Amino acid sequence: MPPILETLRPPQWVKNVFVFAALAFGNRLLDPVAVELALLAFAAFCLASSAGYVVNDILDRQRDRLHPVKKDRPIASGRVGVPAALATTAVLLIAVAAICVAMLPRPLWAAVGAYLVLSLLYSLFLKHRMILDVIVIAVLFVLRAVGGAVAIGVQASPWLLICTFMLCMFLGFGKRRCEIAMLAGTGGDIRGHRPLLERYSPTLLTHLLSTSGGIAILTFLLYTLDASHPSPFPQKHLLVYTLPLVVYGIFRYAMLIELGRAVGPTDLIIKDPPFLAAIGLWVLIAVAILYGAPLATRPG
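^ thats the sequence. predicted structure below, dont judge the formating
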């Protein structure tokens, strides 16, 4: 693709599917107006995330040149100059503002604004703070989910947000483990590329992955079985039977990151057929449970 378009990292837009969580779990999937608003929110977060990626690549262009894969990014390789990258960022921000102001409710503006500010702070210095770097990444995903909820006017389940946060913590620590494995396997310069990675030992990351992955599974179960918060789906508790697929996905991801064959979670997810099959099957079963024929509700 053209270098300017490549700086936007279109494959990374898959991360913004968290915007649609409220649409699906808020029983608005069949509402055309809600679907349109969710798609607009998705577009706004895609543009906002791309703006963050461009700024990050500008700031990291020297370090990226020491990485075996990131050295080929347009800005690090010199195919896109800094002035052109800054102009691209300005266009993206103008487009985000136009979409939000013209088409989306005001509560979403705050979510997108918070996302942009936190992305900038992450690129400037938060990504150099151990543990905090992964927490910020997880919060950015939660902001996507919250943005999707406020865009269509539904209240997101607290357990669903906590599950999103812990799942993204798990993915974030997995990305760090993947980066270390790749640099070690290719002879890359860890200290020159990102000194912080030296402090993330494989043993520590193993413990962090085990903890965050386990809590993510637990909070998913609490979300499915929680009856204290009203749900538009009386049969929501039946999602508990999709647990084997959830566990398989988390455990397979933990296995794949040890191989060090990709830069991060997105590369692993979109390139691994068994992982994609598990996600697709879970989505199909979840939709069948939530939107299928009325099913028996929980006794009592």
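The radius of gyration is 20 Å.
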